[in-house]
Write a structure and sequence with these properties.
By secondary structure, the protein is an all-beta fold. It contains 2 helices and 42 strands.
Length: 496
Amino acid sequence: MTNTKLFSIWTGEYISLIGITILLLAGFCVGQSAISLSPKGGPTTNLRVSGSGFKPYAAIDIYFDTKEEALAIADSAGGFSKIAIRTPASSQVGTHWVSAVERSGHLGVQERFNVFVNWTEFHTVDMARWNPYENVLNVDTVGALQELGKYFTGASVYSSPVVANGVAYVGSSNYNLYAINIHTAAKLWSYTTGGDVYSSPAVANGVVYFGSLDNNVYALNASTGAKLWSYATGGPVYSSPAVSGGAVYVGSYDNNVYALNASTGAKLWSYTNGNYVYSSPAVTGGVVYVGLGEYVYALNASTGAKLWSYGTGGSVFSSPAVANGVVYVGSLDQNLYALDASTGAKLWNYTTGNYVADSSPAVANGVVYVGSLDQNLYALDASTGAKLWSYTTGSYVDSSPVVANGVVYVGSFDDILYALNASTGAKLWSYTTNSSVSSSPVVVNGVVYVGSFDDNIYAFGLPSGLAPPQEADSKHPDLKALRPDFSLKVSLPGTD
C-alpha cells in the first residue's frame, strides 16, 4: 500500500476542511443579513457571534447545530456583536452550524464552524501534554484502534510530531523536517538541514520552528517550507522550541537558553550557567522553565533574568511540565520533582528505579504521569507524589506520555506504543512497531500520531464503522425546524 493511500485514511475520513459558508434557506427573507464567528473553527470552547442586517431591536435566537445557546437583541441598525456561545463538549470533529433566526419573523442565516484541535508544540496545553478536548477516543473505544497509515521518512524518527491545520510536521535522523498533508497523503515539502532533527517542531502564526544537530534554530514558512531565518548557536540543538508572546525559546548544547524574535530570529537574550541544555523550555505566565545541567531554572520570559533555580542530583534532560502552580520535572538522579512554580521550593519528589531521562511529565486531572528507564510508566498524585499505579513495559520508557479523555499513551524501547487506562493503569491497547518508540505521541481529533526508530511516523484511529457519525457534515439544520428556548435570558454583547 502506498503512502498516498495510507494517508488518505489517516484521519479516519471524518475531519473536514475548514470553511466558512453562509447559507440562506428558501422560505426565509434574505436581505443583507449575515453572521460572523470568532474564531471560525477550533476545539469545543467559547466563541463569539456577531450579526448584521436584521430588523432593528429584533429578538434573535442563536443556535449551535439544533440547540439554542443564546438570545440576542439587535440594535437600532439591526446588528449585534460578540454574543458568547459555547460549543458543546460532545461536539465531534467536523463541520457544525451556527444559526441566527429572528424570533418574530422569517429571517435566518447560518455559518459553518469546524470543530478540530491543533497540537502545535511539544508541551501543548499549559505545558502539560494533555488534550482536554478529545471526545472520540476513550477507555471504551481505544481498544479498537488500528493503523490508519504510516509515512516512511528513511531514517529513525526521534522527534515528536505536531499537527496543525491539517498538516503533520516531524523531524527525522536524515537531516530533514517533513510537512505532510494528513488529508491527501501528499508530502507538502521537506527541508534539509546539516544535521539530524531530534527537536520536535513548534507551529505558530504560519511559521514552523525547530532545532537541528547542525547547531541551528530554523524558522520556515509552514505552508511552503521556505526558510524565513535561522539562528546559529554554538552547539547541537536537541531542545524543542516553545513559542510565546512573539518570542521563540529554545536551548542548545552550547550551554545557553535563547529567546529569539519569532519574526526575525534576532536574539532577545540568552542565559547560561555553564551547563548544556538538552531540556525543552516550558513557557507560561511570563516565565520560562527549563533544565540546565543538573538544575531547573525559572527565568523571566521578557528579560532572561533568573527568578530561581533548584539543584537536582543529576542532569535534567526531561522537559518541565507546569500545572496549577507546580513545576514537574525528571532528573537522571532517578527522581521526579514537584517544585513550587513561584519560588522553586521542593514540594515532593518520587524516586523511580532508574533515570528519568527524556521522558517529560504529563499532568491531567490531578495526576502526573512520567516514564523511567526502569521500564515503568508511573502515575503519581500531583499534590502529594503518592504512587497511584505503575505499568511495566518490556524496556526503557524514554517517550513522554500524553493524556486524552481518560487514556494515557506512551512508547517504549520494547518497540511498542501503549494505551493505558489513565485511572487504573490497565492496558487497553498496544501496537508493535519494528523498532524502539522514543518519540512522544500526540492525540488530536481521534487520531494518535507517533514516530518510531523503524523510520516511520504512524497514525492510528478507529475503523470507519466505529468513527463518530457524520450528521454535522452531511447536512445543516433546517431553520424552520429550530425551536427557541423561551427560558433563555438576553445575552449582552461582549467587550473583548
